[in-house]
Amino acid sequence: MLRLALLATFCCLASAALTDSGCTNLGGACQDWRYYKCTAGYETGLCSGDSNRRCCLPCDLSCRTTDSNYDDSACENIDGTCMDNSNYCTGSYSSGYCGGPSDRQCCSANSGGGGIIGGGGSCDLVTYSSLNIKGYNNLKVEVHSGFVADMDTLNSYARQCDVTVWVTHAFREEGQNLGGTVVPPATTSNHLVGHAIDFNLDTPNGWCNGDCLYAGYNSNAECFIQKVLNTSGLRWGGYWSPSDPVHIDDGLNAYHYNEWEALYYDLQGNCVN
Ligand SMILES: [Zn+2]
Questions:
Q1: From the CA of 197, how far away is ligand 1's center (Å)?
Q2: C-beta atoms surrounding 29 within 10 Å
């Protein structure tokens, strides 16, 4: 089937990535240390840009599992957050309140200031579920309230094409490590603001994964993809370079960057523990 759709791509990678190799070679990610807790800790001098861009060292599965198993109750009792003390802290660090190694310390506010993450605002994410859109492996499909109308549109396309959309990723916390993602998360990904989903389709012609979606031989899947392509305000990642056929978003990062950025700080600040 011919797909003479736009090949224009607004994808993805910030130019800053070019000079972050000292960090990325270590498997780390350069990010603004004021806004993200980095479980494994930050390293300075490895990232381009101003001094607030620091290298968040990689946190593998054992790092994350270990981190969530520590007894941090003493710190939580004083409304603090336990983290590696190379992280940004608006109050100050105290030792003796957190489990784990000695540089894992309790950041708590001294005089009324908030902790690093949480900010005191509310989290504007919605857990979406509908007849034809479901979370794969019991995934809670979290999207921003401003993307719900698009999800409803996708749900009606799915119904018309007789497919079920199984969502594998929706809203994503910065720095979250993903197994099996087709393309590495771009710096300004719409997943980070809850305006994107990754998915596979269950169809009367069988399961349709990324290869199947790209190839276009499954008539139900093709029905669904064509409807998305014909909808202004929705983008399918199949024609991007590199191709990302399991991805749909509304292009917020490309068309309304300021809005994307404000939402990014809002959601990553208020929705991430
Ligand atoms: Zn995606």
A1: 6
A2: 23
